[in-house]
Prior knowledge:
Blueprint: H1 2-15, E1 31-36, E2 46-47, E3 50-51, H2 52-69, E4 73-76, H3 94-109, E5 113-120, E6 131-134, H4 138-155, E7 162-163, E8 175-182, H5 191-210, H6 212-216, E9 223-231, H7 238-242, E10 249-252, H8 259-268, E11 272-279, H9 300-313, E12 317-324, H10 332-344, E13 348-351, H11 360-367, E14 371-373, E15 376-377, H12 385-402, E16 404-410, H13 417-432, E17 436-438, H14 440-443
Parallel strand pairs: 1-4, 1-5, 5-8, 6-7, 9-10, 9-16, 9-17, 10-11, 11-12, 12-13, 13-14, 15-16
Antiparallel strand pairs: 2-3, 6-8
Helix pairs in contact: 1-2, 2-5, 4-5, 9-10, 10-11, 12-13
Amino acid sequence: MKKLFFSLFFIIGFWGANFPVYVNLNSQPQLIVIDPGHGGIDPGAVNSWVKEKDLNLTASLYLKQFLENAGAIVTLTRNGDYDLKDLYPGPGSRQFKDIENRKKYIENLNPDFFISIHVNSGNFRKKYFGQVFYGRNPINAEFASIIQDSLNKIYNVSKSPQIADFLILSASTPGVLIEIGFIDDKRLQNSDFLKKVCQEIASSIIKCLNQKKQISQLKGESKLLIIIDDFGNNSDSLVDFLKLKLPFTAAVMPFLNNTHQEAKALYQSGNDIIIHLPMEPKSYKRSWLGPRPIMVNLTPQEITSLLIAALKENPWAIGINNHTGSRACEDEKIVKTVLSFCQKNNLAFIDSQTTPNSLFPLLGSEFGVVVLKRDIFLEVNGKEEKNIIEQLKKLQSIAQKKNLGIAIGHVGYEGGKPTANALKKVLPELQRQGFKICTLSDLIKKHP
């Protein structure tokens, strides 16, 4: 009965809605694609009898009406309770094919803008706010900032949009992903409040499109994020990185004798710190993983206990990245448990991309967690200094194309002194050329 009432509530609320607009397009009609997240057997976040897929679709229908009344041409990736896994043929899991096909559908239409609508999971009763995520594109960043301002107005908060490498945000056309609120916020079940949210979003999108010509002329700053893995192992080259005097993010292995000491020293030297979390690969020697890795046979409770202990010994961490993990990163149970922990502790996740089938970029949006993907390893062609310098040149090209390039190097046997020397030679020159060498905290904005 509750489910029937909920459905009727939204149907009546939608068809009886009045859709005024604040602003109109000041040019010819432009095509907008709205992507209501989840659908079919995938409910998304669930709170009691409220399912995210239903809220996403209802909000998308409201948004469609507001945008059409403002003069836009609007289409939806779905207008009912189904997913898109069978829209185009191809390999992959149901979830991957669903998101990949949404992306293909959007790219084939080549719209002026797309919006993926979601509702955040979690139990943040004191943080009823919306969050906008954008991909690695200066146009997306400007659009996201304008839309985030509209959500801030609704929720009376001061938030910034977040960059993320979610799969849907890798689409070649401009677009954003919007978490319109939290699943446990009962206001989202009120049609008047939901329409108000959608009206603000619609008005901000029209504002973006009206300014699109000016925004498209903006050139974003090319950024480089350097992550150095494997601290905590008492490496001889630790001192070389401590003396580097260039921004980098230090990934510290948990549960080693020197974990806490090295994390503290790196933090005190001005570096961002993340947890370099050992996760089960498909083939390995047990010695590679340290004393307490995340294995696929662990329960969510056991995984969470390990994460709590890792954060306790490294309280300076602002994120996590995976050490190995080609098997664990394809395991939905593990990925959702890690993302849930990141959400509750305000941590980002850097996917080291030890498998192309990692679920972190796919599932990160369900939890509203910033997920970024490694572009290159610095020592992939060996740890000779000249080869590492060549990798840094590749990173430069990536940053020029995407406005952000992410590289992972190593402090220990795999890299060490040659990696530190290469960074010391190349990064100052890149700074002189206008590249910004950043740390993770330069990219992500912590919640208020």
